[in-house]
């Protein structure tokens, strides 16, 4: 059984190929202006890594921010469900998932089968999203991937960023830079702010062991460590945390295929 | 009696000269740096342009951000009191004042005499404020003053899926890339801002008539978008940005004392 999962997010898009329940290939690309084209590109890149051809794929499920515009998808399923399913694939013992993508932040509770039991999402405000990290990385002239390590390298007095709004926080950070506050201290303050917001979100949905983190933010060790500290649990993170949604989608595709049988090509 | 009112905002300072309820002159300048110096500067400019002698001015009140630091004035009423008094002076039927500045908005409720009765503030989110308009103007390579009139030609085809100014940036870039007409993108932005401001007002009950003040009220596109959201017409002063300073000048003429007022102003 060959299935495909596509997750088109606001900043990144992933395609995953599953063969008989095993992860065969995956891709991770930057989302372009056109969601449909992005989905096709993601699929193409994933197929380059395997002998599987596009016509071999029996069922495709799409999810994510632009999931409604994936032309070759057989079904769309919500990102909440796909993230829970995907997280469960990598760590079946996980019952609480924090997913932070480009433009949203989700706290998901699931059962032992990876089915969602409760969730909370913030997709209205840029504060604490991947986008906010990109903005700050640009402002402070550091690479996105360096934010985490640099923030942990600061062990001086803690800086608090009092503004939650990214736009206001930008001005606040600029003042701090002008005052001569070290970049590492500012990054520590920013990561602390994000972790605090996350803690509030997780508290509202309740945290049950085991705990997992998915999405781009998993690659920010500064936020991950601080979240772990605040909630008191270690975080399980997949080897490639950004494909969790697409993996969940591919698994749903296999489940739907098993129920319905292969789709008929006309 | 001639009085003066100075209003220091996050980006601009306004000053008004008042005699027996009549505006003799006003000034608006972009400011930065120390509040006292900015207040001094705007008052000097106003005295210069109005031809009034400094000695003719009996009382000066200062309001706005950091007003307590303006030492040379006789009172520091809060911005909320001033906006309400100023708006009510211009429109005696006003019972609600929506003040939208560079960095936030506030809904002020008043009684029939222009006394502040209640208020709701949003200074946490940039999306319902002037800074969002500025970002968009810069992105699209147009001036702030062009935005309003341009947007009125819109067919309303562009609707932003978000009210967040940061998220909107990517959507706007995508729309520009798609070749969407400028007026439609601008209308989408104005609509988003209006939704955000009206959302804040949902935390209280608005009573007509409603006056819109603050720099953002100069954008006719935002005004129209807000009227559409609320479902009725708004009263907008000819110079909405001077309403706070006008109120300060009016309060100065009334003779009460306003010192060391602590507030969320």
CATH class of the largest domain in chain A: Alpha Beta
The whole-angstrom Rg of chain B is 19 Å
Report, as a whole number of angstroms, the end-to-end distance of chain A: 20 Å
pLDDT < 50 runs, ≥5 residues of chain A = none
Description:
The complex is a heterodimer of chains A (266) and B (265). Chain A is globular and about 65 Å long. Chain A is 40% helix and 21% strand. Chain A has 266 residues and is α/β, with parallel strands linked by helices. Chain A folds into two domains: 116 residues, Nucleotidyltransferase, domain 5; 145 residues, ATPase, nucleotide binding domain (Nucleotidyltransferase, domain 5, 2-Layer Sandwich), CATH 3.30.420. In chain A, strand 6 and strand 7 form a beta hairpin. In chain A, the strands form two sheets. A five-stranded mixed beta sheet of chain A has the order 3-2-1-4-5. Chain A has a five-stranded mixed beta sheet with strand order 8-7-6-9-10. Chain A is built from eight helices and ten strands. In chain A, 49% of the residues are buried. In chain B, the strands form two sheets. A four-stranded mixed beta sheet of chain B has the order 3-2-1-4. Chain B has a four-stranded mixed beta sheet with strand order 7-6-5-8, with helices on both faces. Chain B is globular, with a radius of gyration of 19 Å. The mean pLDDT of chain B is 92. In chain B, strand 6 and strand 7 form a beta hairpin. Chain B folds into two domains: 115 residues, Nucleotidyltransferase, domain 5; 145 residues, ATPase, nucleotide binding domain (Nucleotidyltransferase, domain 5), CATH 3.30.420. In chain B, helix 3 packs parallel to helix 5 and helix 4 packs across helix 6. With 265 residues, chain B is an alpha/beta fold. Chains A and B meet through helix 3 and helix 5 of A and helix 3 and helix 5 of B.
């Amino acid at each position: 059984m060959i299935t495909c999962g596509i997750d088109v997010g606001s900043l990144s898009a992933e395609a995953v190929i599953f063969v008989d329940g095993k992860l065969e290939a995956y891709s991770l690309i930057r989302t372009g202006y056109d969601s449909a084209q992005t989905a096709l590109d993601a699929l193409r890149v994933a197929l380059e890594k395997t002998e599987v051809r596009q016509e071999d794929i029996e069922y495709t499920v799409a999810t994510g921010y632009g999931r409604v515009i994936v032309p070759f998808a057989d079904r769309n399923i919500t990102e909440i469900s796909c993230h829970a399913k995907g997280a469960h694939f990598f760590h079946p013992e996980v019952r609480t998932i924090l997913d932070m993508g480009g433009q949203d932040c989700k706290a998901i509770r699931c059962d032992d089968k990876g089915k969602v039991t409760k969730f909370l999402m913030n997709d209205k405000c840029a504060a604490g999203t991947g986008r906010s990290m990109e903005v700050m990385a640009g402002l402070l002239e550091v690479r996105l991937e360096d934010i985490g390590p640099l923030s942990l390298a600061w062990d001086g007095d803690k800086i608090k960023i009092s503004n939650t709004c990214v736009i206001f926080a930008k001005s606040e950070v600029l003042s701090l830079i002008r005052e001569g506050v070290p970049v590492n201290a500012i990054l520590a303050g920013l990561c602390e702010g994000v972790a605090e917001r996350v803690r509030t979100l997780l508290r509202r949905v309740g945290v049950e062991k085991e705990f997992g983190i998915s999405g781009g933010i998993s690659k920010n060790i500064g936020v991950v460590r601080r979240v772990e500290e605040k909630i008191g649990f270690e975080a399980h993170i997949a080897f490639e945390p950004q494909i969790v949604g697409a993996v969940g989608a591919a698994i749903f595709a296999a489940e739907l295929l098993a129920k319905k049988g292969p789709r008929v090509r006309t | 009696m001639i009085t003066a009112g100075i209003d220091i905002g996050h980006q601009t300072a306004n000053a008004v000269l008042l005699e027996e309820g009549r505006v003799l002159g006003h000034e608006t300048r972009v400011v930065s740096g120390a509040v006292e110096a900015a207040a001094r500067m705007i008052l000097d400019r106003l005295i210069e342009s109005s031809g009034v002698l400094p000695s003719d001015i009996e009382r000066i009140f200062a309001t706005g951000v950091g007003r307590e630091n303006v030492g040379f004035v006789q009172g520091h009423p809060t911005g909320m009191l001033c906006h309400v008094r100023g708006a009510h002076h211009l429109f005696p039927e006003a019972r609600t004042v929506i003040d939208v500045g560079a960095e936030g908005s506030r809904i002020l409720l008043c009684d029939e005499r222009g006394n502040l009765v209640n208020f709701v503030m949003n200074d946490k989110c940039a999306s319902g404020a002037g800074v969002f308009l500025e970002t968009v103007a810069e992105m699209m390579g147009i001036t702030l003053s062009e935005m309003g009139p341009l947007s009125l030609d819109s067919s309303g085809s562009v609707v932003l899926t978000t009210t967040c100014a940061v998220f909107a940036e990517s959507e706007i870039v995508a729309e520009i890339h798609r070749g969407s007409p400028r007026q439609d993108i601008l209308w989408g932005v104005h609509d988003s801002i209006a939704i955000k401001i009206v959302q804040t007002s949902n935390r209280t009950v608005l009573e007509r008539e409603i006056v819109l003040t603050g720099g953002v009220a100069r954008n006719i596109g935002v005004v129209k978008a807000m009227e559409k959201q609320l479902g009725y017409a708004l009263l907008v002063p000819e110079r909405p940005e001077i309403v706070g300073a006008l109120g300060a000048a009016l309060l100065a003429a009334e003779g009460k004392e306003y010192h060391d007022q602590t507030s969320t102003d």
